[in-house]
Amino acid sequence: MKKIVVLATFILLLGGCSSSEPETLPMPGGIYTAEYDVRGEYALKFALNEMGLGESSYQVSLYKKQIVNGINHFFLVRVEDDSYEIKVYEDLTGTYKLENQEKIER
């Protein structure tokens, strides 16, 4: 009986040890890869409209965020046959401003 209790305790102790890495949070003010969400979608659609590409089909390859006094949204996006790096600033009221757009030459 004593062996069973010792064995069960040992198994419970091992089970409590996790081999997975702890989740790391982004550094405050740092740029981090984010899940493309509704806010990102609104920011990108705003940018595409500002660029005159609002009706074009697009595919997001990479989406990053930076929390500042608002949110900087960074996109690597393919629009039709062209690729762009786009930066959109969203202020605390939800107003967007297209900060940068750069067509990537192949």
Features:
single chain, 106 residues, alpha+beta, Nuclear Transport Factor 2, Chain: A, 5-stranded antiparallel sheet, 2 helices, 26% helix, globular
The helicity comes to 25-40%
Q: Which stretches are poorly predicted, pLDDT < 50 over at least 5 residues?
A: 5-14
Q: Using the coordinates shown, work out and report the CATH topology.
A: Nuclear Transport Factor 2, Chain: A
CATH architecture: Roll
Radius of gyration: 23 Å
Q: In CATH's first tier, which class applies?
A: Alpha Beta
Shape: globular
Task: Give the ordered list of helices and strands.
Answer: HEHEEEE
Strand order in space, largest sheet:
1-2-3-4-5
Q: Mean pLDDT, as a whole number? A: 84
Number of helices: 2
What is the total tally of β strands? 5
**Residue share in β-strands:** 35-45%
Task: Describe the overall structure.
The chain has 106 residues and is of the alpha+beta class. The chain has one domain: Nuclear Transport Factor 2, Chain: A. Helix content is 26%, strand content 40%. The protein starts with a helix and ends with a strand. About 9% of the residues have low confidence.
